[in-house]
Amino acid sequence: MSDWIPVYEASNSLEAHTLKGALEVVGIAVQLRGEALSGALGELPANAVEVTLLIRPADLERAQQVLAGYRQGGERSWKCRHCGEQNAGSFEVCWQCGHEPGTE
Ligand SMILES: [Zn+2]
User: Fold this and answer.
1) Cα–Cα distance between 96 and 9 in angstroms, integer?
2) Which InterPro entries does this chain map to (predicted)?
3) pLDDT tens for residues 3-13?
4) Domain of 30: which CATH number?
5) 81 C-alpha to center of ligand 1: Å?
């Protein structure tokens, strides 16, 4: 079961754990790599604590959807029915085309 692939590089441990939780909620198994290095290896600079999220290849598509929603600032995001753009939950109309969700 060594078949893990990197899906996202978090800039810090907090972000990594936030995303890990978001992925696990939808049933995606996540491993974190890099976190253990901070403090363990004295030669590393203090800010070298980027944490890579690893997932299984089968989960890649779903994981990217979850991460795309996160990057767009929404715990809830919606997909425009007109142009297919993914919008943050805080947007009332599609930022790409101005289409309102719920209308045809
Ligand atoms: Zn749109």
Assistant:
1) 26
2) DUF2007, DUF7577, Znf_RanBP2
3) 999 999 988 88
4) 3.30.70.1530
5) 7
